[in-house]
Structure formats: C-alpha cells, structure tokens
Amino acid sequence: MGKGPRNLAVLVTVVAAVAAACNSGGGNLPGQSAGASGGGAPNSITLVDTNSGANFQQYFNQTFIPEAQTDLGIKISYVVSSGPETLQRMKAMTQGQGDFDVIFMKDNDLVNWVKSSIPLENLKSHLEAIPNLNKTPLEDEKTVLGTDVNYEGALFWRSQGATIVNTAKIANPPKSWKELYDRRAEFKGHIAWVRPDAKSGGGRTAMYAFFHAFGVPFDTVKDLTALQATPQWKDAAAKLADFSTYFVNPLPAEPPDMFQLFNEGTAWISDYAQDYTIWATTQNLVPSTMKAYPMQEGESKSADGHLVIPSNIPDSHKPLAEKLINYMLDDKIQLQLLTQMYQYPGTDVYTRAPADAFTKIPPFEEGRKPLFTITNNDAYTYFQQHGTELIKH
Amino acid sequence: MKLAEGSSTAILGTDALRIRPRFGVGRSPLITFLLLLPGFGAIAFLFLLPLWLVIQLSFAPEGTDAGFTLDNYAAFLGSPTLRGALFLTIELAVFATLFSIVLSVPLALVLRRPFRGNRLFRLLILLPLMIPALVSAVGLRLFWGDVGWANLTIQLLPFVDGPIRVVFTVPGLVLFYVWLFFPFTALLTLAALEGVDPAIEEAAEVSGASRWRVLRHVLLPLAMPGILAGSVLTFIEAFGAFSIPLIAGGDNRPLSVQIYTVSAIFLHWNQGAAMSVVMGAAQIIFLVTYFRLLRRQQPA
Fold first, then answer.
1. Measured between beta carbons, which residues in chain A are less than 8 angstroms from residue B4?
2. Whose C-alpha in A100, A128, A280, B92 is 20 to 30 A from the C-alpha of B166?
C-alpha cells in the first residue's frame, strides 16, 4: 500500500472509530426509561438516597432492596448521593426527563428543594395509590422546619441524637446536660465529641444541644451576631470551653473513629445518633454495653427522613414510585427500622410494635418527648465552621 | 511528504520532527500526529481543562463560577489554621521523603544481592502499594492505637509504663507516610543499584577503595537518578496524602484534609479551589527546587 492510501486508511479508521464512539451513547431518546422495554410499562425504578449514613446504606443494599425487588417484582437501582449534588441535578432536569424516581432526603433538604421551586408531587393527592401515607402524620408534615412543604414529603423515619454511654464504664450515667457538666471531673479524658467540622453532623448537633441546654435563645434571637452577644451564649461558650478540657484529645475525626475510642475504652460517654450507635453494638463496632437515652433538656431532632417523588419524572414511572413509597411505609419495613436499625419509624407502627422493640432504645414517647428542632441555621453553620475554635483542650 | 512534514510542524512545533525518529513510527508525520492525538486529547481534556476550571473557580466569588476576586486566596492565607495546614503538609512530605531515602538505600543495597527469601522481601516492599490507602490508614490506626498490637508489645518492655502516643501525632503521621510511600523510593533505588555494572564496583575495590568509599563515591552517585526519581514520587504522594491524616491525624490536618473539609463539608467550593491552586503551586515550587538542588549535587 502506498503512503497516500495508507494515510487515507488511517484517517478513515480514526473517523469511523470516533463516529462509532459518539453514536454509542445516543441509543436512548431523551426521557426514554432504561427500564422500559419495547414501549411497555417500566419495570425498574431509581431510589436516590441523600440521607442515610453507613448503617442505613448497608441496610438498603443488603436487606431492603433485595426484599423490595422480590415483593414488588421490580428492579430498584439504589443510588447514594448528597443533597446539594442531587439538587443541582434536579435543577437541570426538564419535564419528563427526570431519572430520580424516588428521593430519600433530610428534612432541611426538603425545605431547600421547596424553596428552590423544584417541582415535587403533592403526595396527599396520591393517597389512593399510597394508602400507607395515612399511617404517617401527614397533616403534621405539611409544615417542615417552619416551611410549608405542601405535602410534598412522606415521613419515612424520625432520627434523633441521644446521649450514648458505655454502662460498663459509667454505672450511673448523668441524666441531663447540666448533670454531665457538673460531674465532668468524673469523666475527664473520656468524654468523646466528634469534630464539629466532620462530615457527620454529630459534633455540631451536640454543640447545639449543649448551648440549648444552657438556655441560648436560638428560636427568639435569630441574628447570629445578636445571639452571640447574649449572656446565655457567652455563658454557654465559656462552659463549653471549660467542659472541652475534659474531652478525649484529639477529637475523633468521624463517628467510626469515636466508636473505636469506645472500643479501646478511651471514650465512655458522648452525644450522637441513637440509631447508628445502637446498631453498632450489633456489629461489634462498639461495646455491647452501650446505651442510648435522651438528655432531659432535650436532644436535637437531627434529620427526619422524607420520601419525595420529583414531578419531572416520566408519567409512566409515577405508579412505580407510588408503589415503592407505599412499600417503604408498610408495617414490615417500618418495623425493620425500629427492630433492626433502632430508628424511630415514620408511621404509627410503634403503637403496634412488639414489646421487645424498645429494649435497646427508649419507648417512642419517652425518646421523642424532649426533642427540639434546630431552627437557627446560622448558629448551626457557625458551629460547623468555627466549632473547633470553641474547643479548648 | 514535504507538505505533510510542514503541516505537522505547524501543528506540533519543530519538536514533532525531532521526536519522530525516536519513536520509530514510520516516516509519516500524519501518522505520528494521529498517534499522539489521543494522548494530547487526554492531557487536554482530562488534566488541563479540569485544572483550568479549578483555577477559574478559585478566582470567582464564593458560590459562583465566574468573575474575579482574590477573596478566596485572602481567606485561605489569612487563616492561621489553613496556613498551618500548608506548613504541616510540607513538613510531612519532606520528612516522609527523607526517611524513605534513609530506609530505602540500605534496603536496596541488601536486596540487590541474591539470598534466600530475596523475592519474598521484594514482594513485601510492594505490599503498601497493593493495599488501598484507606485500608492502610484504618489498619495503622488500630495497630498503633493505645490498645493496638504495637503498643501492647511495646508495653512489655520493662521501662515502658503506658501506651506510647503514635496515632494523632506528627511523628506518627511521618511513620505512617513512610510505611505507605517508601516503596516508590525503594523500588527505583533498587532498580538503579541493580543497573550498576559490577565491574565498576570491582575495579574500585581492586584499586584499594574501602567498602564505604565504594558506596560513597561509586554506588550512590550511580544510583542517584533512581533515588531522585523514587523520592520525587514519594514526595508527591506524601504531599497529597488524604486518608491517613483524615483517620490517624487527629488535630494534625494537612491541606488535603482541609480542602476536603472546606469544599465537601462547608461547601465553600471556591475557597477550596483556591486552596487547591496554592497546594499545587507549592508542590511544583518544591519539586523544581528539589530538582535544582540535586542537579547541583550531581557530577557534571
């Protein structure tokens, strides 16, 4: 072959390869479901999870998804993502092109989505298809964190912080933040506190709870500068600075690090998510003698989980999305939350739960009674970004 | 053919003609160009373009991706915590590199000679590279923790009366970095030493040079390119290390961890981009200085 034809052959090959590569990604028309075969009803659905920690990601992957696929006869793609990332993606989606059929999100994300005018289905209008919604406090959830969300989220679980204590180390644990502060010398070097700037929000919600316990008026003084000028804030900050000299040093970078400190016997008491901690006892990640209970002044209602259906998904996917949400609110799944994962359910299934469901966690009413909602986002963000400056160890 | 050469020169510059014979890719510059195209494309789209976007983001006001401000750099350089993170990053990388060299040279001198178990030792050197850094970080954290095996063993010594704090300390981080990144230096040093002609070593010994002088004046200078290349790789890896300081660093949080915190937790992407640019620039400055210093040390 001469040089000219050879060059031509190379060029043709390259162009053909590029064209083939470009063409291979264009098989599906916009909006066409991967799960729809031959124009029939779709048989697959995407569940995006922006709320779960490691424990619940494992639950979804290993327990929920296999069972749901068998029970519902559909394929479920379980995708873990973050709230902000999913929000950006939703903003870019046009009507009928959405590919996130059901999204599981934190309550503050739901509020952000509603405020960002992301179109979500009003689930009250889907009551017929999602009868299990009647088991949730639907009317109470019309307003979430003070924002009218227009029935766009179904309450899947109720999450909360708790005081976690190794009862093998502390036989008579303090019942209130004030008692813990007063008895801090007993626990010097053994009070664990997740870094407030960690990925996990445990450290900053605990900080919020501590300030709340010492009377900081988060709800009435919304302006951060004014709040920081209040005597209550100054008093709580001084107390925290002193209290933190009794902490495990350095602060654990993330919860697994803190769990390891409990395992090593360095950490005895902390404030963290009830579900994750008690679940961790079943995985031998922390001592089996760990218990969780709420402090008397209150624990933060950290992040209730809501299920939403984006309005921009293809209409053909909506029945499947309804089916999945109804299944997630079914007693079977909601009881699993309680008995396997130690998370309070979103429905009223706790009233029908077996007696032994509350052996490792407090009964529902007792556990939920002292909860408060984090309403001052500026203060919370301050704890996240400057909380380490309040720690003086 | 002349025309083709001219066109490729116009596109690629005069270097294209110079590198052609070295690659031995026939005589057609068009083919050379087409073969180089995927590489250039990959560099442009997978490296230069993202890098440019990061630089652009670093100069944009927080929360936007366009515009110009120096606020992100000012916020970074004005924060004692973040400035401290930069110095800690440099400190960790420099010490990890130095200790890697100190560890690698004797090891390579031993391993270049055949002995029973030599292959196993070489395999063991590769071990840290085969294990994901995150797994190593967790393992080291547990092994060196207060009730880890290392500490339990050390406490058997009569003069040790409590656990030695290794995890969450700067020396501990250097130790972990060395464990994880020294294979780069060790392997390239070993390869360089194995490449030294034994006749040169023998000639020096026959001429009356002591073993130390042979090492000092023959082996080390000849192995220097390998040591240099390996230590550069170790430095680069140590400079960007993330998993180990995140898990086992405690309050010692180098720039990589701070960038993660600022970007992925505080969601200050623009400031995170500015920190990344400074980190990249610092790394380049260090490497250029390092190369220059070492080049000056080498015989002409």
1. 7
2. A280
**Is the pTM here over 0.90, yes or no?**
no
- At CA B289, angle to CA B285 and CA B294, rounded to 5? 150
**How many residues comprise chain A?**
393
**Chain B nearest C-alpha distance from A366 (Å):** 33
Enumerate residues 6+ apart whose C-beta is below 8 A from A207.
Answer: A196, A240, A383, A387, A390
One pLDDT digit (tens) per residue for chain A, 393 residues: 444 445 545 444 544 444 444 343 333 333 334 444 445 678 999 999 999 988 999 999 999 999 999 999 999 999 999 888 888 888 888 888 888 999 999 988 999 899 989 999 999 999 999 999 999 998 888 888 888 999 999 999 998 889 999 999 999 999 999 999 999 999 999 999 999 999 888 999 999 999 999 999 999 999 999 999 999 999 999 999 999 999 999 999 999 999 999 999 999 999 999 999 999 999 999 999 999 999 999 888 877 899 999 999 999 999 999 999 999 999 999 999 999 999 999 999 999 999 888 888 899 988 888 888 888 989 999 999 999 999 987
Is B169 touching A (CB cutoff 8 A)? no
Cβ within 8 Å, pair B146-A264: yes
Q: Which residues of B touch A198 (CB under 8 A)?
A: 265
B34, A10: Cβ pair inside 8 Å? yes
Chain A CB within 8 Å of residue B141 CB: yes
Peptide bond into A256 cis (omega under 30): no
What is the predicted ipTM?
0.74
